[in-house]
Amino acid sequence: MQDETPPRPAEGASKQRILRAAIREFETYGYAGARVDRIAEAAEANKQLVYRHFGSKEKLYDAVFSHLTAQLRDFGTRASKAGVPYTDWFVPAEGEEPDENMAQTTWTRLLTWEGLAPSTRDTGLLTMLRENYAIQARELRSDPRAQAALTRFPAHLLVALVIAADHLPFATPSVFAALLDKEAATHQDVVDWFEFVKELLSAVGPAPDVAEPPPSPRRHERAKFGSVTSSVT
């Protein structure tokens, strides 16, 4: 029979310290570059305790991924209940510098690593991630700024655009600063960036009702040439 005795307060605190240290480690180095001994040192614990709580590096990574996925879902739920439009979800809170917006910054950087080198094998986590994006698509459909754009493009493509815009200042801050011709981006730079994205989304109007132009002679020649060469044996 499994022991259902709750962990002692000290054990729970050590597990939380390890989880926080792991979040920083995986954010900085990705799964492949992360080291359990560094996580243990940052958490003021030993490697044996890390393995006791999480079992393996892979399971620790999955715990981090699950924690952040659930955290972002909870944020979206609270924002939706508060009536915050979807396109305002990503603007950093007043007084926060980009690197201090921990949940958003960490999440985007972790997703960047995961996109470059997928590491989680937990299909449940990947399902939860897809569900999060489906929730965002639903919220986008009720955002007044997106109504005109939704007449031309499906919600999931517009969500992809917003997510990509979110990654630029948070996952690649040095690139974002370089694009602004600055040494480092400020909080106001990030706010201005998201205001630009919102205005851009609002500016997308319905598709014009214009007949498709006839193919140019050059396009016609290429098509004809292709049909000829394809018949050669």
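^ that was protein a. below is b, sequence first then the tokens
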Amino acid sequence: MATFNSRKGAILSSKAIAEAASWYCAIFLVALILLSIFRDSSMIPNNNDHNMIESNHFLSSKPCDEIYVVGEGETLNTISDKCNDPFIVENNPHIHDPDDVFPGLVIKITPSYYHT
């Protein structure tokens, strides 16, 4: 009879451990969800910030890549300011009219610290 009670106690003990572990996992997941919500809401630009570009590029904090795809609402001036490349037109001979920039246009970026 003693072995039956010890097994029953072991089963109850393992159930308590499993239940506690599941509660800790649930609390951890809720904390991660809340953290990601607050992080995402802090990255949304407000209407007073005129330096933010209204495109899919505003969330990336890394510098511009050498190959850049123009986003919605961007101009060569905003791209030049963002990427620190004042010679976009000179380095991209396929751009015949600087005012004719459209989403999806692929341009080469050479930041000014590469220029001599």
